[in-house]
């Protein structure tokens, strides 16, 4: 489709979307009424700048179903991603939404050279996270063979890669590297496997990591960008050029805005990625602020696709961390610690990557009243915090108890995170 | 009635090179003498338990120096320093459902002093008063 034809399509979809959310999502109706904005004020895709924004906090504030436009009886699936203590971010899908999602993933896989005869292992987490099931149904929709391996039990995964003649792999980039290490330990030569391509996403990865993965696993590795609030994986995907991820912009419309003024930047410039879901009916979002800092490339791609390409994510405009593919906010750790009287309200997060997988260490100080002469009491305290963190963050963090006043107290914003990883 | 309980100082120490040295130097500077001590350690930290002659002096000196100090009450049993004496005592306590959370000891000549933290301190005192051993009151 030419860019002009696409603009027509996006404009028509935006008009329908704004009308739909105005009448079905009180959150947006209230916002638009406060701005004296009517659906009829939106005539084409450029009028998108008139629309209100949506943030992650809005999703938390409307937990669980406040952002849904469709009634629960039309919602056929719920997913949830990490949030603060007791408040995950919920996403609801209608049957139509799931159909769009499958189609989006089919495009992702096709761009990587996948087709009906491929056998694809989905090593993203199955469950509340969108990664596993999202990819799963996309593979089935294509008619390829899906193996729902999920995360964990890496040795078994490697054996299946060999025994089932798996040709495609969907995992996070660091897990792909980790699998190559496991293969090494097991004495299995990746060159002897049938792997041909991998769709990697869930965390930022560098050109050097791509080289490493392709060399070690003897396959071609393609980026897949996504976020659960928008749909899950499948928002943008690399083609054979491996030079930017084509945005599924007929369904998910991207804007790049200056994070401070929230005004559009000139085409090609860097800013915050803001996405509008043009076709979702369950939980459609207007101008969702992803907090990812990046740019769009409008130049024609040799592959022939005309949808705009997303360049590499350069960073975040907030303090979110991605650890082993999971989004972690320091505020989540804070909410757990403040909730426990046994600890001082000071903490330090040390993020590192020793070997291939990310690690998270949380340093805390025990309050003087809770110190003990018994070792078992201190160890139980450590475990209590560790268990709570695991439940809120969905990843295991190492807890280190430090002596009183070891963690810096500053008058201004305390430096809470030390990220020792460097994307090599 | 003599106070049989002994105040024990416990200090939480991170596994940092020279940390114990910081403790001993602080105590020395403040003229505090240690009468008994033991340490329970893990890879990351240790709990150092001290019986000192001047409890309040030690507590203040250590707290002022920034250490994580707690006070707890333990008992010190004094018995004859030969094989089998402790075994008899512990067996008796055990039969009466009093157990040991931790213990450490030092002997001098005819006498053995065993610092214990029992599961039930008052019951422990009651039981041992029936036996042929005494409690050592190390502090004023």
Architecture blueprint of SSEs:
The complex is a heterodimer of chains A (424) and B (140).
Chain A: H1 3-24, H2 26-34, H3 56-61, E1 75-84, E2 87-94, H4 95-111, E3 119-122, H5 130-142, E4 145-147, H6 154-163, E5 168-171, H7 173-186, E6 197-201, H8 207-217, E7 220-227, E8 232-238, E9 245-247, E10 252-257, E11 271-277, E12 288-294, E13 296-297, E14 309-310, E15 315-316, E16 321-323, E17 326-328, H9 330-338, E18 343-354, E19 357-366, H10 375-393, E20 398-402, E21 417-419
Parallel strand pairs in A: 3-4, 3-5, 5-6, 6-7, 18-21, 19-20
Antiparallel strand pairs in A: 1-2, 7-8, 8-9, 9-14, 10-11, 11-12, 12-15, 13-14, 16-17, 18-19
Chain B: E1 5-14, H1 19-29, E2 34-41, E3 45-52, H2 55-64, E4 68-80, H3 85-95, E5 100-108, E6 111-118, H4 121-128, E7 134-135
What does this structure look like?
The complex is a heterodimer of chains A (424) and B (140). By secondary structure, chain A is an alpha/beta fold. Helices cover 31% and strands 27% of the residues of chain A. Chain A folds into two domains: 72-318, 3-Layer(aba) Sandwich (Rossmann fold), CATH 3.40.50.12780; 326-419, ANL, C-terminal domain (GMP Synthetase, Chain A, domain 3), CATH 3.30.300.30. Chain A is built from ten helices and 21 strands. A nine-stranded mixed β-sheet of chain A has the order 4-3-5-6-7-8-9-14-13. In chain A, α10 (375-393) links the parallel β19 and β20 (398-402). Chain A is globular. The model of chain A has no long low-confidence stretch (mean pLDDT 93). In chain B, 29% of the residues lie in helices and 41% in strands. Chain B contains four helices and seven strands; from the N terminus they run βαββαβαββαβ. In chain B, β2 (34-41) and β3 (45-52) form a beta hairpin. Chain B is elongated.
Number of helices of chain B: 4
Fraction in beta strands of chain B: 35-45%
* Overall CATH class of the largest domain in chain B: Alpha Beta
* CATH level-3 fold name of the largest domain in chain B: VC0802-like
Gross CATH architecture of the largest domain in chain A: 3-Layer(aba) Sandwich
Class per helix and strand makeup of chain A = alpha/beta
Shape of chain A: globular
Helix content of chain A: 25-40%
Shape field of chain B: elongated
* Average pLDDT score of chain B: 89
**Would you tell me the overall average pLDDT of chain A?**
93
Helix/strand class of chain B: alpha+beta
* Order of secondary-structure elements of chain B: EHEEHEHEEHE
